[in-house]
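Recap for those who missed Tuesday's class. We walked through two folding examples back to back. For each one, the amino acid string is listed first and its predicted structure tokens come directly after. Nothing is annotated here on purpose, so try labeling regions yourself before you check the end of the notes.
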Amino acid sequence: MTIRVLLADDQALIRAGFKMIIDAEPDFEVAGEAADGREAVDLTHTARVDVVLMDIRMPHMDGIEATRRICADERLAGVRVLVLTTFDNDDNVALALHAGASGFLGKNVAPAELVAAIRVVAAGEALLSPRATRGLISRFGQQSAPPGKSRLAALDLVTEREHEVLVLVAHGLSNDDIANRLYVSPLTVKTHVNRTMIKLGARDRAQLVVIAYQNALVRLGDALPEPPRLSS
């Protein structure tokens, strides 16, 4: 299956560099190039896009608003947005995740990392910069959950095991990590994650993390929960 990628950046030189990387992959195809957010939204509708590489700072419409419009459109439910930024600690990245982005990368990412990130996001997973994401999302969660905010009602539909998996996802653990911790298979974890996304209306793993912080299931500085003990 060919993964069609839209490049959205106001700098032609950066788009050209990413295009060279993407064109070198036999199962990748550049679906189009956009120099601003408005053009990115329009091309996403017309170019059969799977993944948008989205710059944040662009003229006419920034990447955050473009991400919000793409992710809010039911006709584009299969499109994933991967935000590109110059700064890993840019607070705008948190806003992009809240708008529906599936993750972010620094613009200085190595070619192999970029290719791997596109594959991860195209498969419906979240891709979050390993260096800064946990602190970034936890800051976002604190900023977005003021005192007195009502708890998401859909959390009542989540089973005890799904809740356990959700908390571990919010701590940044992969499916394999969670499987090892809970003594189950990665496929079982993936099933729990997918069911939780459906129940909570989350597009992907990144939004599960945001929901967990917004609803105080995880707080900044929390330690990982103790793994269950094997019965003797």
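Example two. Treat it independently of the first, because the proteins are unrelated.
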Amino acid sequence: MSTRFTGKSVLVTGAGSGIGRAIAVAFAAEGASVVVAGRTAAPLAETVALIEKEGGTAAAVTADVSRSEEVRGLVDRTVELFGSLDVAVNNAGVFLGGGPIADLSEADWRSLLDINVTGVLFGLQAEVSRMREQSTGGAIVNVSSNLGAHTRIPGVGGYAATKAAVAALTRVAALDHIADGVRINAVSPGPSATTMSLHAGETDADRAARMKGESPLGRVSTTAEVAAAVLYLASADAASVVGTDLVIDGGAAA
């Protein structure tokens, strides 16, 4: 078993399910002490239980990433629990307002902006503020999407716009803060094995059949595959990787 993150403290937002949970579990499996964060306590507790079952170390902290004071408190709590903040993964996000742009509600638009964009901004601000005070610096990975900067499809304009903003924000922040010893990158998954990639009324088997025609790879990515890319970007193996946006979508945006 790899021990790339032994002795490291890692914060993962949106870690109660899906990609966020897979990322948290993967970091813990490689020796990290992980804070799993989200708005709802019960799924976070499930993630912690999964990690502890395999002998890992984790703690759950509830926080709303759209509230700057809660994000600052989340970073402070991570340091209180584990002594430092070495890696942060800004994964929390929502998918709302499927349909034409003309029909996107103001409420959905504001929620998309608040969580998907402002939440990442608040995360970056709090995380960099802590990391640049550490002699070891730190690494940040933002979770964007292949929808937005890389590819577009009808009916998801609001979501795509916010994820394109995450990609741009990542690259500018990376340039702003590499001199502070903080490396910032992004991953942009395409359809993965989560409920977000299921169409209305679709089963996993239905999705598998659909993806054979829609994806050059012929399937969705597993959450473990996305997590592996995040761990690479956060590791010393990627020491010279700064401001990249790693697309993980089976070739859809190639």
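Answers for example two:
Residues 106-131 form the longest helix (26 residues).
The mean pLDDT is 96.
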